[in-house]
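Re: [ENG-882] Designed sequences occasionally contain unexpected residues at chain ends

Forwarding the minimal case from QA. Structure tokens:
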């Protein structure tokens, strides 16, 4: 219920600032009980989508209040936002974070995170189809964040994991061959393992440049 109503709000079915229909109308529209509806409304309130006030009712909050840095919200939004617009916004976020994360990973990786990154890279090298490549590619980028040794960056990977997986799959299908960016990933991997922070930053920026070209193409 929260997914259906939240997606409807994000899609624009209920405009920011507008009141939601009364409970009876929502129960009929979504075919749910009052208990289910109220639990869904509490969930959406916690995500910043709606607010309830005495004598005013339940209204959709302004977009600035929406907590899109929530894994559910980000996933819902990715399904209803204009595809190119959303892909570019996710790409902008990655370009701000991942080159610096690669530099941190080069400086701070430990044996365990280096081994995990190595396994992810080996899986990319050995991938035989798009799905194997995408799983390995996603794991590679999550490993880079883990290797930063910054506990605040690891939840970021969990946050964008579902939407990033979708972007990686689309990029692989748009390329001439699914593993067309293997050389760029290898450059990132080798720089991190060599503890070359400036090289890792440049290599990740180059990799993301290839990604942007595919998105815009």
């Amino acid at each position: 219920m929260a997914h259906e109503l939240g997606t409807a709000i994000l899609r624009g079915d209920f405009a920011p600032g507008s009141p939601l229909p009364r409970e009876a109308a929502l129960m009929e529209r979504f075919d749910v009980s009052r208990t289910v509806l109220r639990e869904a409304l509490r969930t959406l309130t916690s995500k910043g989508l709606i607010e309830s006030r005495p004598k005013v009712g339940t209204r959709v909050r302004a977009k600035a209040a929406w907590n899109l840095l929530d894994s559910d919200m980000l996933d819902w939004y990715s399904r209803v936002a204009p595809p190119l617009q959303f892909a570019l916004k996710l790409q902008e976020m990655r370009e701000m974070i991942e080159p610096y994360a690669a530099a941190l990973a080069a400086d701070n990786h430990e044996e365990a995170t280096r081994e995990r990154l190595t396994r992810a890279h080996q899986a990319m090298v050995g991938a035989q189809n798009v799905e194997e490549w995408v799983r390995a590619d996603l794991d590679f980028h999550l490993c880079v964040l883990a290797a930063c040794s910054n506990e605040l960056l690891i939840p970021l990977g969990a946050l964008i994991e579902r939407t990033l997986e979708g972007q990686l799959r689309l990029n692989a299908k748009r390329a001439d061959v699914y593993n067309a960016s293997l050389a760029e990933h290898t450059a990132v991997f080798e720089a991190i393992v060599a503890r070359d922070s400036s090289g890792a930053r440049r290599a990740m920026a180059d990799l993301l440049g290839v990604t942007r070209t595919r998105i815009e193409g």
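QA comment: On inspection the terminal residues look reasonable. The CA atoms of residues 11 and 80 lie 5 Å apart. Proposing we downgrade this to a documentation issue.
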